[in-house]
Amino acid sequence: MILNTIHRKVNEFIPWTNVYGIARSLIAINTLSTLLFNHSEVLFIRNTPQELMGLSHRLIYRYNFFNLFPSTEIARFAAIFFLILVIIGWMPRITAILHFYITLSFLIMCVFIDGGDQVATVLTLLLVPIAAGDKRHWHFGKSLPMNQSHNFYMKCVAWFAYIAIRLQVAIIYLHAGTGKFVSNEWVNGTAVWYWFNDPMFGANYYVNLVLTPMLKSPVIIFFITWGSMVLEILLFLALTMKTSYRKQILLAGILFHLSIFVIQGLFSFFFSMTAALLLYLYPINEQIRFRLPSLKQKEVDDRETTIFRRRSAVDI
Q1: Total of domains in the chain
Q2: What pTM was estimated for this model as a whole?
């Protein structure tokens, strides 16, 4: 019975929509933004072979993307070019592997990284099995009809990769939410005050002008601090929520990371986490529409959606 259910869900699973395409583009923007606005001398430090301890370190250094070129500055421009190809959605089956290679190389070589770069590396790796089955020339295009969309084994690989992505993102928020309980500052509700006033990750001067009056209120600080923790735990619990609830909490999660971007200036981190939330909470089988369809087209789309839901009922 269980095997039959899994077989049916996998067979009707079609992840090759613009949902995963948009996520790929957002992840690429994360790395591109750092490479675009920083010189290679700031980002990378070259090590001599004598400074590399162990065979694994030497291999990682030798075959790193940013060491394949005469200079890291040339490599930076090459990475920018390939990441632009990812962003515009060209040939995801080909660019997915290259995207992971560049992201991993950047994570290893860059001196200044944050959690967004780590998330981007994991997501690009897990997206490779999904992209491997993408027959489209552009990842923003419409998905193929069910009867034309790949064999069962390719869908099976993509389905398990998608499950792994959702579990990984859920664990990120579980760790972020529960991990704060070991900190006295988070438990007593004052952590946000310290973060907003941190000299490196705190709010900039203009944002502080707005925040300072609120930061003087212990009640507001307490609710912002605990609100962050509660939201992160809710984002973890969204793993088992219905699709309608997941879409609502998706918006809350994006606004949460947008506020971090505005207040703390974590620009690239915002794109990685938005991509992670999109893959985690938005039904990957559905196509995201950016314009209002005509009445006739809406009727056709509603009819197709009804038929698909009756046949699929996939609520992973």
Answers
A1: 1
A2: 0.85
Structure tokens given for 279: 């893959």
- The per-residue pLDDT for 22 is 95
pLDDT greater at residue 218 or residue 54:
218
Range of the domain at 157: 2-312
Q: Which residues of 98-126 are buried (b: 16+ CB within 10 A; e: fewer)?
A: bbbbbbbbbeebbeebeebbebbbbbbbb
Please give, one letter per residue, the 3-state secondary structure of the chain. Answer: CHHHHHHHHHHCCCCCCHHHHHHHHHHHHHHHHHHHCCCHHHHECCCCHHHCCCHHHHHHHHCCHHHCCCCHHHHHHHHHHHHHHHHHCECHHHHHHHHHHHHHHHHHHECCCCHHHHHHHHHHHHHHHHHCCCCCCECCCCCCCHHHCCCHHHHHHHHHHHHHHHHHHHHHHHHHHHHHHHCHHHHCCCHHHHHHCCCCCCCCHHHHHHHHHHHCCHHHHHHHHHHHHHHHHHHHHHHHCCHHHHHHHHHHHHHHHHHHHHHHCCHHHHHHHHHHHHHHHCCCCCCCCCCCCCHHHHHHHHHHHHHHHHHHCCCC
Q: Which of 56-65, 76-85, 117-126 has the lowest mean pLDDT?
A: 56-65
Choose among 150, 165, 169: nearest CA to 14.
Answer: 150
44-53: pLDDT as tens digits: 876 555 455 5
Q: What distance in Å separates the CA atoms of residue 117 and residue 107, rounded to the nearest whole number?
A: 6
